[in-house]
Amino acid sequence: SEIETGSDPAGDEIFISGLFSEDGPDNTLVYHWDGQSWTPIDVSGPQGATDLVWFDDGSGRKLYAGVLEQIDGIAAAGVARWDGSSWEEVGGGCPAYWPTLAVYDDGSGPALWALDGEGDELARWDGVSWTSFPLEPGDAVLSWRLVAAEVGGQSSLYWTDWIDEDARLWRWDGGVGQPVAAVGPGAINDLVASGDVSLGAGVFAAGYFTGVDGNPAAGVTMWDGSAWGALANVDVGNGAPN
């Protein structure tokens, strides 16, 4: 699931994607809040949007969604774009399967990046075409949460996966994906990039993990490029368990 403000971050608009249930089976939907009421803008069912991000491909800032095969009845493989009134497929279909999304500049200009749900492919949309970057096939059961962050003075894409009861943090170096750290037992559910030096600029990881580098941790920690910092643990009574 994902929450995004409207095209004007100072406005009242909110867009939210997630797994919702109304007196029936769970459905993956997108809702829009206009400051007064909620309106569904995707009622497609269990295979709708799982991630949202704003990106300007040269035609104005628009909302992009990571999808499986369709959204709100519109065929869209991988990534769909909301034009304010309807959804449309982006670039004839994204190479990455049911991806998570992030905006990142690898030196060739800002682009929309999509990470395959199984962590074996990255794709880049520059507003004209998709470019695919195959990753080394791994043994992870699930990948999620792609973010662009400046860590240790270097801007990179980061993502996480889950395997054998542990979670790994990966970094894209422009050619390959590299696992740089792990937590566990447990999983990372979200990554947040922070440039706040007072917090220690890096990537915050949150989830239901209970350990970091052999030390107790209560569901939240930060990667500074060389080590995890266990920001909280159950012994001191704070943190974000589960």
Commentary on this structure:
- With 242 residues, this protein is an all-beta fold.
- The chain has strands at residues 2-5, 14-20, 27-33, 38-42, 51-56, 61-66, 70-71, 74-75, 79-82, 87-89, 100-105, 110-115, 121-125, 130-134, 142-151, 154-163, 166-172, 177-183, 188-194, 202-207, 211-212, 215-216, 220-223, 228-230.
- The strands form seven sheets. A four-stranded antiparallel β-sheet has the order 1-2-3-4, with no helix packed on it. The chain has a four-stranded antiparallel β-sheet with strand order 5-6-9-10, with no helix packed on it. Strands 11-12-13-14 form a four-stranded antiparallel β-sheet, with no helix packed on it.
- It is globular and about 50 Å long.
- The two termini are 16 Å apart.
- The mean pLDDT is 83.
SS class: mainly beta
Q: Gap between N and C termini, in Å? A: 16 Å
- Provide the succession of SSEs: EEEEEEEEEEEEEEEEEEEEEEEE
Shape: globular
The pLDDT mean sits at: 83
- Helicity level, as a percent range? under 10%
Beta percentage is over 45%
- Biggest sheet overview: 4 strands, antiparallel
Count every beta strand, where a strand is a DSSP E run of 2 or more residues: 24
Low-confidence stretches are none
Please supply descriptive tags for the structure shown above.
242 residues, 24 strands, four-stranded antiparallel sheet, 0% helix, mainly beta
Helix-strand layout with pairing:
Layout: E1 2-5, E2 14-20, E3 27-33, E4 38-42, E5 51-56, E6 61-66, E7 70-71, E8 74-75, E9 79-82, E10 87-89, E11 100-105, E12 110-115, E13 121-125, E14 130-134, E15 142-151, E16 154-163, E17 166-172, E18 177-183, E19 188-194, E20 202-207, E21 211-212, E22 215-216, E23 220-223, E24 228-230
